Amino acid sequence: MAKLKGSAQLENALDFSVAFSSDGQAATITFSNLLVSVSGKAPTVATQVASFTLPTIENTTGLHIQMTIRGFVETLPGTRAALVAHLGDTTAVASLPKSAPSGDNFQQDLEATLPAGVAVQTTVFLLVEGNSGKENPGALLTIDSLDFDISGRHAGKA
Q1: Where do the domains of the chain lie, and which CATH numbers do they carry?
Q2: pLDDT per position in the chain (158 positions), as tens?
């Protein structure tokens, strides 16, 4: 007789985990499926938007935060990739490497100052596209992790 077992899975849902440092000064969000890709003739554009909020406590003054985005990009002739990231009062278009056929890892740093009592919120927008109406060899953009640091040890390095 057939049985149901395991856990339910929401299709198209992001799979991620969050780890906090023991002193509460850093956090990492790790993803297994934050990605967009295109290949062939359709679709010629793929996008993904994801927003995350990390609560803060004891935040009584302006809070300086650094976020590091780590990922992978592969763009072949006729395709493009773009990543826009927003953190606090800062928005940036990532400098993605011009990819070789085997792709390349990337890292993008952002810094922002948040007002007292405000949680850390970030939004990332991923886009890949190929030339319309033509056979595209493919493009892939992934985000592997977001690292957050409020300790001030890395300030000014973004």
Answers
A1: 17-149 (2.60.120)
A2: 655 666 665 666 788 999 999 999 999 999 999 999 988 776 689 999 999 998 888 878 888 999 999 999 998 888 889 999 999 889 999 988 876 667 899 999 999 998 888 888 999 999 998 876 667 678 899 999 999 999 876 555 54
> By C-alpha distance, which of 55, 62, 53, 114 is closest to 88?
114
What's the whole-model pTM score?
Answer: 0.84
* Strand locations in the chain (E): 16-20, 26-31, 35-40, 45-54, 63-75, 79-87, 90-93, 104-114, 120-130, 136-149
Give the CA distances from residue 60 to residues 6, 37, 114, in Å, rounded to whole numbers and listed in that order: 44, 42, 11
Token pair 């085997």: residue: 102
3-class state of residue 39 by DSSP: strand
